[in-house]
Design a protein that fits this description.
mainly alpha, 3-stranded antiparallel beta sheet, 3 strands, 55% helix
């Protein structure tokens, strides 16, 4: 019905996108002048700017991370009596930054994103983050996941959750790859994703069969071509959201940690064969070397 109304020009989707709803909630916690400044930053980040200074739209993940990292110091400044970001000084920024590590680099990146854009838009007079050293994100050693939590989601009574976890745990798919899988990407027990042809492991075949049975019984008339559909997407041609994929892995895990665990396991099994890791999981040489470096690492050896 939605598709018919859309084709007829009679359907207006007035649902607020998840990112916009979340950002509005975060920004509403700030004083009005500061909220207006953050709203401008969000709109330019989301839609870009075709007038000088021109700017390309940024991805939803980038916008969410920058705002998530910046919100804590913004709220502290507001609680201290600052109404506008024009009042923030370099000393305020330095005091707001964590002392070291990824917390410092992440907070710094979020604040720099906001102040650079607002200065370019002439919403603030100066950029107090300029020439403030915040460091770089550290490449942390990949670590195994909690196997108990992983077994629980693989054996979940929810067939969608079990199928998502199986695809990632056995074949190391990324969140976006799982999200965009189509029904036609699985043929004769073979998974076709990007340029890779992957024979499906038997547990994955069983999990997918259970999900497809549920999918047919739950939404028998859906025309959605994506493998995973939800109540919200079954009546449209849209894929499930990234958040839905994240939620499917359960509260104690993430899609990224499960994928890392799978690659880590392969690195240990192949004695750090970088070429094999690249072929199996679509890794770059640098990323493959990161996993290969874990072979015979004393901390990981103690876990096996």
């Amino acid at each position: 019905m939605t598709r018919v109304l859309t084709d007829a020009g009679m359907f207006v989707d007035d649902r607020v996108p998840a990112l916009e709803a979340w950002a509005t909630e975060q920004i509403s916690r700030l004083p009005d002048p500061m909220a207006a400044e953050l709203t401008l930053w969000f709109e330019v980040m989301k839609h870009g700017s075709s007038t000088p200074p021109r700017r390309r739209p940024r991805g939803e993940t980038t916008i969410q991370l920058h705002l998530r990292w910046a919100i804590p110091p913004l709220l502290r400044w507001a609680a201290a009596g600052h109404d506008s970001l024009r009042e923030i000084t370099r000393d305020d920024v330095v005091r707001a930054l964590p002392p070291s590590g990824n917390p410092r680099s992440q907070t710094g990146q979020g604040l720099k994103s906001i102040f650079r854009l607002l200065k370019a838009q002439k919403m603030v007079f100066t950029d107090p983050t300029a020439r403030v050293a915040t460091g770089r994100h550290e490449n942390r050693q990949p670590l195994p996941v909690d196997l108990t939590a992983l077994r629980q989601v693989l054996n979940s009574s929810n067939p969608a959750h079990a199928a998502v976890a199986a695809l990632i745990a056995f074949h190391g798919l990324r969140t976006t790859q799982v999200q965009l899988l189509r029904l036609t990407d699985i043929r004769d027990r073979i998974l076709h994703v990007d340029d890779r042809v992957i024979p499906l492991a038997e547990p994955v075949q069983k999990a997918l069969a259970a999900w497809l049975d549920y999918r047919r019984s739950r939404w028998p008339r859906t025309n959605n071509a994506y493998l995973f559909v939800t109540t919200r997407t079954a009546s449209s041609g849209m894929p499930a959201s990234r958040r839905w994929i994240w939620d499917a892995t359960g509260p104690g895990l993430s899609a990224t940690s499960i994928r890392q665990d799978r690659i880590l396991d392969e690195a240990q099994a192949t004695s750090g064969d970088v070429r094999r890791l690249a072929d199996l999981f679509g890794l770059s040489i640098a990323a493959g070397n990161r996993y290969a470096a874990t072979v015979e690492h004393p901390d990981l050896t103690a876990l096996t």
